[in-house]
Amino acid sequence: MWWLLLAAVAVIAELFTGTFVLLMLGAGFLAASLVGLAGAPGWIQGIAFIVVSTLSLAVVRPWMKHRFFRGDPSTEAEFSVTEGQDALVVERVDADNGLVKIGGELWRARPYDATKTYVPGDRVRVVKVDGATALVWRD
């Protein structure tokens, strides 16, 4: 019966993470619980948990992530940053990383031209938004 309790805890915890990892473990816990209800010994219940969790993580989770987080306009984040906005460099911006402040929000940044480097205090302009990273340029 503790498998069922673990399944419930995993599913509830998943509501706070949104990664589908705990949901897949919850499926494994549920499978182990069902095998236990059928009268199987503990070691078989453990194998059921491992097999179902592993398959869920390897097959179902990637499909769910693709289905729910890619290509569905209703689930795409609405960014408050648009091309052409001004930004202030907070931490050195180079080809590897950087941090800028755009309209009161901190954003990861890289230079639009990878050979450029910007130092704290520089004023730059957002040329493109690539995921959660602003590509910036100084006029």
What does this structure look like?
The chain is an alpha+beta fold. Helices cover 44% and strands 22% of the residues. The protein has a 5-stranded mixed barrel with strand order 1-2-3-5-4. Strand 1 (86-91) and strand 2 (99-102) form a beta hairpin. The longest helix is centred in the middle third of the chain and has 28 residues, at 42-69.
Brief descriptors of the model:
44% helix, NfeD-like_C, 2 domains, 3 helices, 139 residues, alpha+beta, transmembrane helix, Membrane_assoc_protease, transmembrane, NA-bd_OB-fold, OB fold (Dihydrolipoamide Acetyltransferase, E2P), 5-stranded mixed beta barrel, single chain
How many β-strands, per DSSP?
5
How far do the termini sit from each other? 65 Å
Query: Unreliable segments (pLDDT under 50, ≥5 consecutive)?
Result: 72-76
Biggest β-sheet: count, sense, barrel? 5 strands, mixed, barrel
Computed Rg: 23 Å
Strand content: 15-25%
Within the largest sheet, what's the order of strands?
A: 1-2-3-5-4
Number of self-contained structural domains:
2
Order of helices and strands: HHHEEEEE
Mean pLDDT across every amino acid position: 88
Q: State the helical fraction.
A: 40-55%
Q: Which class best fits the helix and strand makeup?
A: alpha+beta
Basic shape? rod-shaped
Protein name: Membrane protein
Membrane topology: Multi-pass membrane protein
InterPro entries: Membrane_assoc_protease, NA-bd_OB-fold, NfeD-like_C
Keywords: Membrane, Transmembrane, Transmembrane helix
